[in-house]
């Protein structure tokens, strides 16, 4: 049914050429409902995480959320650190044991576990396709002070980058003890981040890490139980180094780079083979705008273990952040040599080729990904966009149609269709596609901007100004840019 629905929408767009449909904008989807309506489905995904000490007594309480129907749960590293067993409690009061640790990233305070729970009771959240921006509204669901399924609202007040863990968000949404590990959601009810902690003495100093960090976790190959994981960690490396890294990580997330640097330097001295200490040092140097020192720090785990695929990937992401794409490519190729199944590295390699305008290699890389994973929508869209740029429109549209059959409500698919129609100089179809993108996501800034520009190109200034008015409430920079294109004499 989803494929049929998408095909019908494509037919509707194409019918505009013959005048079968109105050329005016289709009615927009109404904005998301009340906060209560947004929260209700999320409550099935969010749980309370209960930890027990060696004697079986409750030692701490946190929050977490499911990301798959197979019982895979995400929470904070510090929520489970030191626990000898753990369980989760769902919204209906049912309790299930945490069976195994699957992956972790101590630097950004994340851990992924498997819960022994029937699939029908494990409702996954929907992850956002795009990260939030400063001033975007968000809300948090968690169990502060043990008060389960508590909801708070706020905005994103700052965004920072951490090459070893993605973006870090500062929030105004109130966070209390027990909220750690809960989801941060946008106005569409999609998860954009994971709550980490608050600064007790600060006003509205609350922090979360982006869901992008879920792709930058180190797998636990043996998938130990909580007890095994805690005992093993207590035996690995100096406890001092682990404590120093934990303190440094919190300071790095807060943006206190100078102070964090001292902790990570001491951690690296105490345990020079610990990659987390060097990742932490690198992140501090990034925050202090010292790229040579950051690169040197990120290289140290590779010197210790040349087959550390995560270390190569972190280094590649920093090269990408500073625009050194000629160094991104060989570094990602090392990741793929070590782990040929690393989809994220393959995808980033394709994008790096595109940044250097090595289009043939970009296309070949994306095609190899699709051969192995035909339903990888980001690759379908990027390959389609690349083919559209070089005029291979039919191939591009075929890829977008395939993606639409998989996710008919994905606004990025319609947006890319609109861009391709614009390149084909078919403005009516482009208008229809941009309108469908806005229906799927009424807050999609790029779709409103392109729709306004398309109207303006047709001489329909009033309709272009309508998009300007909408953009004023979404992003002032894009609104001003559109206004300047409509009224260049005002500059």
Description:
The protein is an alpha+beta fold and 491 residues long. The protein has helices at residues 2-14, 35-42, 77-80, 226-235, 239-254, 257-270, 275-287, 291-304, 309-321, 325-338, 343-355, 359-372, 377-389, 393-406, 411-423, 427-440, 445-457, 461-472, 476-486; strands spanning 46-52, 58-66, 72-76, 85-89, 95-105, 110-115, 137-142, 150-162, 166-171, 183-185, 191-198, 206-210, 218-219. Helix 13 (377-389) runs parallel beside helix 15. The longest helix is centred in the middle third of the chain and has 16 residues, at 239-254. The chain is globular and about 75 Å long. The relative contact order is 0.09.
Return the CATH class of the domain at 37-215: Mainly Beta
- How helix-rich are the residues, as a percent range? 40-55%
CATH topology descriptor of the domain at 37-215: Thrombin, subunit H
- Beta-strand proportion: 15-25%
Tell me about the largest β-sheet. 6 strands, antiparallel, barrel
Question: Spatial order of the strands in the main sheet?
Answer: 1-2-3-6-5-4
Distance from first to last alpha carbon: 50 Å
**Which secondary-structure class do the elements indicate?**
alpha+beta
What is the CATH architecture descriptor of the domain at 37-215? Answer: Beta Barrel
Please give the count of helices: 19
Shape assignment: globular
What's the Cα radius of gyration? 24 Å
Q: Give the overall pLDDT as a whole number.
A: 86
According to DSSP, the number of beta strands is 13
Low-confidence stretches: 1-5, 7-33
Question: What is the element layout, followed by pairings?
Answer:
Blueprint: H1 2-14, H2 35-42, E1 46-52, E2 58-66, E3 72-76, H3 77-80, E4 85-89, E5 95-105, E6 110-115, E7 137-142, E8 150-162, E9 166-171, E10 183-185, E11 191-198, E12 206-210, E13 218-219, H4 226-235, H5 239-254, H6 257-270, H7 275-287, H8 291-304, H9 309-321, H10 325-338, H11 343-355, H12 359-372, H13 377-389, H14 393-406, H15 411-423, H16 427-440, H17 445-457, H18 461-472, H19 476-486
Antiparallel strand pairs: 1-2, 1-4, 2-3, 3-6, 4-5, 5-6, 5-13, 7-8, 7-10, 8-9, 9-12, 10-11, 11-12
Helix pairs in contact: 1-14, 1-16, 5-6, 5-7, 6-7, 7-8, 8-9, 9-10, 10-11, 11-12, 12-13, 13-14, 13-15, 14-15, 15-16, 15-17, 16-17, 17-18, 17-19, 18-19
